[in-house]
Amino acid sequence: MYLLFVIRKQFTIKKKVLFEGIGLHSGIPVKMTIYPAEKNLGICFVRTDLKNNPSVNANWSNVVSTNLCTKISNKKGVEISTIEHLMFALYSLGITNVIIKINAPEVPIMDGSSKIFIEKILEIGLTEQDQIIKNICIKKPFKIVDGKKFIEYQPNNKNYLEIDYTLDYKDQFIKKQNFYIQDVQKNFLEIYHCRTFCHQEDLEKIFAMGLAKGGSLDNAIVISGSKILNQNGLRCENEFVKHKILDCIGDIYLSGFFISGKIICNQGGHELTLCLLKTIFENQKNYFIDNLQKFNNNQTLNKISNRSAIVSVV
Question: For the chain, what percent of residues have pLDDT higher than 90?
Answer without folding.
Answer: 85
